[in-house]
Inverse folding.
């Protein structure tokens, strides 16, 4: 079973649009919850781009998808935990309070 060029183009365009929307939202967001949602939207775009791989190489594609899903869910849990700790410490979810590396306030 092969995917025709029109369907393949539509999948990749939709994937690119999701990645672009997620990227632009990450750049412009002012709180950490929007950053988290945008990152998950970007992961959705990546997963959408993997769909054509299932038609030509189903077994390796399933393995790649499984690893990607576990990685994404682990990343999501770590980010949620970090946001909870950040909120408890700073009483705010503003990205303006986020410091890079080991900076001290």
């Amino acid at each position: 079973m092969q995917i025709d060029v029109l369907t393949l183009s539509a999948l990749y365009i939709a994937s690119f649009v999701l990645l672009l929307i997620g990227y632009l939202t990450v750049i412009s967001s002012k709180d950490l919850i929007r950053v988290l949602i945008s990152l998950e939207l970007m992961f959705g775009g990546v997963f959408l781009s993997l769909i054509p791989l299932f038609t030509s190489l189903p077994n390796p594609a399933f393995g790649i998808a499984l690893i990607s899903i576990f990685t994404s869910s682990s990343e999501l849990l770590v980010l949620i935990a970090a946001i909870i700790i950040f909120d408890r410490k700073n009483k705010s979810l503003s990205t303006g309070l986020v410091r890079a590396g080991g900076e001290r306030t």
Observations:
- The longest helix spans residues 58-90.
